[in-house]
Amino acid sequence: MNTKVTSRDIQEIITKLTSDKAKPRDEGIKLLNTWLGGERSIGFCRFLSDRSSMLEPNEIPHSESWPFLVKILIQCLSLEISSSKKRLPKLNFAKTLRIVVQRAEDDRFSGKNFPLLPVARVLFNHVWDVLKDVPSFQSEYSVILRHLLAVTEYRFHIRKRVYSNLVLIYMEKVEASLSNENIGQLNPKEEVFRFTLTLQSLLENPPGDIPDELREDMVKGFVGIFLM
C-alpha cells in the first residue's frame, strides 16, 4: 500500500527524534524506518526530495528536507553514542542514517541534484568522529563515506585534516585485518575487502591534492600493509 505522506507525518518523526529522552528517539527511529521501507518509501522519499528541491542555494534547510533530516539523525546518533558508555550503541541508528543518505541520492525520486550539499561537511566530520570511537558502526559508516566520496560536489567539502585522519585509520584497519591476530575471525576476507574498498575510495577521491604531510605517513602505511 502506497500511503500518502503529509507534513504532519514528517513533523511527528522530527518531534520524536529531537526529544531529549531516549525512548521517544528510539520510537522516532522505528517510525522513520517504517516510512523508509516497502512501497510507502516511494511517496516518503519523493515528498522530501520535492521539498528539498525548493531550497535556495544559501537557504537554511527546513524540517521537510533531506539535509534537515540528516542533521537531526546526526544529533540523535551523537546522543546515542554518548549515553551508551556501558553498552554498544544501537546499530539501527547507524543503519537508519546510512539508508537516509542513500535514499536522498536515489535517482528514482525527483528533486534537486546534490540534496545533501548543505550538510556534506557536517557528515564528513561526523563520520570521522564515529569511526575513530565506535568500531561496531564501521560497516554502516564505511558505506556512507564511500557514497559521499563518489560525489565530487561533496568530497570537496571534507576538511584536509579529516581526510588525512580517515586515510590513516583505514590503512591501520587494513593492516590489522591482515595480521595474524585476525586469522580466527569468521569472515576475515570480507573484512579485508570492506576496509580495502573504503581505503581505495579515499585514495581515488581526495579533496584536491593529497596533503604533503600525509604522503610520508601513507608510504609507511603501505610498507606495513605489504609486509603482512
Core attributes:
globular; mainly alpha; 228 residues; 11 helices
Summarize the structure.
This protein is mostly helical and 228 residues long. Helix content is 66%, strand content 0%.
Cα-atom radius of gyration: 19 Å
Flag low-confidence runs: none
Largest sheet: none
Structural class: mainly alpha
Q: What fraction strand?
A: under 5%
**Percentage of helical residues?**
55-70%
Distance between the termini: 53 Å
Q: Could you walk me through the main structural features you see in this protein, from its secondary elements to its overall organization?
A:
The chain is an all-alpha fold. It has a domain at 1-115. Helix content is 66%, strand content 0%. The protein contains eleven helices and no strands. It has helices spanning 7-17, 22-36, 40-53, 66-82, 91-104, 120-131, 138-149, 152-155, 160-178, 188-204, 212-226. Helix 9 (160-178) runs antiparallel to helix 10 (188-204). 34% of the residues are buried. The mean pLDDT is 88.
